[in-house]
Write a structure and sequence with these properties.
The complex is a heterodimer of chains A (230) and B (334). By secondary structure, chain A is of the alpha/beta class. Chain A is built from nine helices and nine strands. Chain A has one domain: Spore Coat Polysaccharide Biosynthesis Protein SpsA, Chain A. Chain B contains eleven helices and 15 strands. Chain B starts with a strand and ends in a 28-residue tail after the last strand. The chains are: A alpha/beta (230), B alpha/beta (334). Chains A and B meet through α4, β9 and α9 of A and α3 of B.
Amino acid sequence: MRRRAGIILQARLGSSRLPGKALATIAGQTILEHCLRRLMFPGVAPVVLATTDRSEDQALVDVAERLGAAVFRGDASDVLGRFVAAAAAFGFESIVRATGDNPGTDIEAPGRLLSALRAAEADYVHEQGLPYGAAVEAVTRDALIRAAHETTQPDDREHVTIYVRRNTHLFHVLELLAPAPLRRPGVRLTVDTAEDLARVRAIFERAGSDMPSLRQLIEAAGHPVRSEVA
Amino acid sequence: MNVLITAASRRVPLVQAFNNALVSLGVPGRVVVTDVNPLSPAVQVADRAYRVPLAHDPEYLAELLKICESERIGLAVPTIDDEAELFGAARERFAELGTLAACSSQSTAALCNDKYATWRHLAAAGIPAARTYLPKDLASKPPFPLFIKPRIGRGAVGAHRIRNKRELDFFVRYVDKPVIQEYLESPEYTIDVLCDLNGRPVHIVPRERVVIRAGVMDRGRTVKWPALIELAEQVCQAIPFVGAFNIQCRLREGWPAIFEINPRFSGGIPLTIAAGADFPKLLIKMALGIPVPPAIGDFKEGTWMTSYETSFFLDETSLRLPVCEPRARMGEVA
């Protein structure tokens, strides 16, 4: 039987290195808008913004609701708990986890990973080799629930899937290679610092589209992708 | 995960098998086919179909690559001998588009397409095969009957049984670049083999071809004879294969000897799938990057297939097969 799938984007305004970055603009849109639109575009699964119950994050909720994404608000520090609660609230049994600091998320990655999660009957799937900040990960709700019950380590609770990835004897963890044309691990597309923001702004500017594909971003970053058909 | 099946023609069950595999795996996707003729039956059951030139046309590969890019194909499955070498040589070009070309290398395809080279290679590896000669190497008084066929050939086209010297003299001139094989009078077996991307056999399914019509098995059954399975394992050690291929053999003194290897899906593959060796499902898994463990011998013995003809009835206005016009990439949509 096919499991109900959903995409959960975690985002908050509080960031130690670059406060408020989710609402920083790149090519005329906030980073949060880029993230949500790229995840919603292929229509493979409903998208939920999972943010904190802090009042400052109401601004993110407003953006998500304007774009038609669902919203879940939960614990600020226990992100793992927030994911489990969000998945339960929306009835998701398979979850794609995306993060709100990646405006260059691969548009097609959620579809690929959900396909692999189902086909391999895995608990967790991740792709290696994509540009830094382009990947998402897929995990079952059952695996997250088990992790939430079994770990109290702060890192496990903050980074959601670490416990599952680390305990390969408990979970069926699948590490896949990203599609060859997108395998450019040297390209950095995440926005973690002010320098990142400036670089990603320049890449989007060169890409010249309001929703550039990952190939276009890689090319704009100065790493040509051979795709011409002779 | 979208799947492309080229030269789909009459391979309706193969198209349906890939569709079923996507559904049973819970993988969203569609099956796209190519053909030269809008009347081809497989065109009628595919999710989408495109007209392409013949495989030897200089534009053939470019058309396929265009379809792969436009349709975001994750898995491309060639089906005919004519395109095997072309596909094998272009595997990296498909990979650059994110498409796994489920086929062996160009050198493997070339070896299998050349029946004399296949015999020499198998003989050198000590693998039982039907003795194969060029006309100049044949003894002046060979034992009849013999079998003659084009050295580079497709299916049963141009293959003839030779009963005497008079027929031999005629067919040596009649058949284009012929090879002559010893004639093995016995039941015929086809062994369907699936190899992973590293050439390791995943499935080996022998079946007896009980009734053959137009070169394709009409009635047959799966058999779990260890000698046939071991023969296929020997072949996999001697020749690097990727994806589906099939070995054809008959018996010499009660033991199997190979007379042909085809680096593509067999026409009788529906029986193998029905017996539990779901090649399409496993190829989709490979294209997704999911490891596929070997399951040699894991199929139901004694599964029979009996086939019948069926027809599609089409409105004349629906007989259109478009060529692929590249569409905007996802990122280029406003």
